């Protein structure tokens, strides 16, 4: 007979194994075989008949949590994506349908549309950001059918929603001066200065053309920064994910901001998807629209090398533990680095890896409660092979950050924590 004490010991053993092992599987918070939506009565059938909804063409790529909502973005890669910006409720079912945001009328874009329905319509977004002022920041590429026969039905723009009111707060259309023919905006990071919600800068990754675009909310203006390290590396353009080999020439795509330093500025950590370099740029440079080429040349710092087969689509920062998390595409997992240590192979670690649950980890986000959220979506199959919709294809996983790094290279010792505190 198994005694209660034996069961307790077994449970403790399992917990210890979970914490100490770098290869582990987190239970999914949400999972879907195919993405469906919370349709109004009779609308789904009409959408399918008119090609406004083609289930197999809907692939989620971005997530962000606000209170009881988890926002999920679906770029309009192909035809049949009814809504690019959506959400689910955290307390809902694990396979609940997506709810278009802010409303169906705003989010819906019919097949063949030549313009948007309202100013709140998001045509095609890869990733989003929730800030401490209860705002949802979206960078909209404004294009549909990106993979097949691209159509620009709205100018690229930053769209900001008031989450407390579920309403449009700001919209900034990018000028031709910051756009290029190959521009594809992927990620956005938001920098609130001195806790002043109006004094805010947003940094946007132009993955297609390999550049950063800065938006100054207070003055409703934007400008572009270019640097050789924002471009792809030829030796990092080959991928092997989910049994599929492919080549990408994606430029800078991942952005995360550190804590504010004593001088009032932060560091923006970024890197191209097709690269092994980790880069750092001070917001002192980024916030200055009058920078010179020399400023940019000397202001973009290579922090270190991530190593072979280390391509990554997304990263985010945990201010409590001073840890940067980043996806690891070819390793089907998530890595971490504590910013109080040098960036090298001795101080970085593959935290979690699973070739099924984390096949193509596409986005990673921290929430304000200290949780790490991860989205995996089998994107390589979606683009270069075919999806099996009898299987789970899309997953959202979640873990408490402090527990996730316990016993790893990303957790500082007590002495290291004391030294880091004194330095700050």
TrEMBL record:
Keyword Electron transport found: no
User: Where does the protein principally reside?
Assistant: secreted
> Per its UniProt entry, which superkingdom is the organism in?
Eukaryota
Keyword field: Secreted, Signal
Q: Give the record's GO CC terms.
A: extracellular region
Where in the cell? Secreted
Q: Which PANTHER family match?
A: PROTEIN YELLOW-RELATED (PTHR10009), RH54244P (PTHR10009:SF11)
Similarity section: Belongs to the major royal jelly protein family.
Protein name as catalogued: Protein yellow
């Amino acid at each position: 007979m198994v005694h209660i004490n034996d069961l307790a010991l077994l449970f403790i053993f399992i917990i210890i194994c979970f914490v100490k092992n770098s290869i582990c599987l987190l239970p999914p918070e949400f999972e879907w075989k195919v993405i469906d939506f919370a349709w109004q009565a009779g609308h789904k059938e009409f959408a399918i008949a008119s090609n406004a909804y083609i289930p197999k063409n809907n692939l989620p790529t971005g997530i962000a949590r606000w209170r009881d909502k988890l926002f999920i973005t679906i770029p309009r890669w192909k035809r049949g994506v009814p809504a690019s910006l959506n959400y689910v409720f955290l307390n809902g079912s694990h396979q609940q349908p997506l709810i278009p945001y802010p409303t169906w009328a705003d989010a819906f874009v019919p097949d063949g549309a030549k313009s948007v329905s309202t100013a709140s319509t998001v045509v095609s977004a890869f990733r989003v950001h929730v800030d401490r002022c209860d705002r949802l920041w979206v960078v909209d590429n404004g294009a549909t059918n990106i993979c097949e026969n691209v159509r620009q039905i709205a100018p690229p723009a930053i769209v900001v929603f008031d989450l407390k009111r579920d309403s449009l707060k700001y919209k900034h259309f990018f000028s031709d001066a910051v756009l290029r023919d190959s521009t594809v905006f992927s990620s956005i990071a938001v920098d609130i200065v001195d806790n002043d919600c109006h004094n805010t800068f947003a940094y946007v990754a132009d993955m297609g053309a390999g550049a950063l675009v800065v938006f100054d909310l207070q003055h409703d203006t934007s400008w572009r920064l270019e640097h050789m390290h924002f471009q792809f590396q030829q030796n990092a353009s080959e991928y092997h994910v989910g049994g599929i080999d492919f080549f990408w020439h994606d430029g800078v795509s991942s952005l995360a901001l550190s804590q504010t330093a004593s001088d009032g500025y932060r560091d923006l950590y970024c890197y191209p998807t097709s690269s092994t370099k980790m880069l750092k740029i001070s917001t002192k440079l980024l916030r200055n629209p009058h920078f010179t080429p020399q400023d940019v040349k000397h202001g973009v710092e290579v922090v270190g090398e991530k190593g072979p087969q280390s391509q990554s689509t997304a990263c985010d920062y945990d201010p409590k533990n001073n840890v940067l998390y980043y996806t690891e595409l070819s390793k089907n997992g998530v890595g971490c680095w504590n910013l109080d240590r040098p960036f090298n192979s001795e101080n970085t670690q593959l935290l979690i890896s699973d070739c099924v649950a984390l096949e193509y980890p596409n986005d990673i986000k921290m929430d304000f409660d200290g949780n790490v959220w991860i989205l995996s979506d089998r994107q390589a199959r979606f683009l270069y092979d075919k999806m099996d919709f009898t299987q789970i294809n899309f997953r959202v996983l979640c873990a408490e950050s402090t527990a996730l790094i316990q016993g790893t290279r990303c957790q500082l010792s007590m002495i290291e924590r004391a030294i880091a505190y004194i330095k700050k």
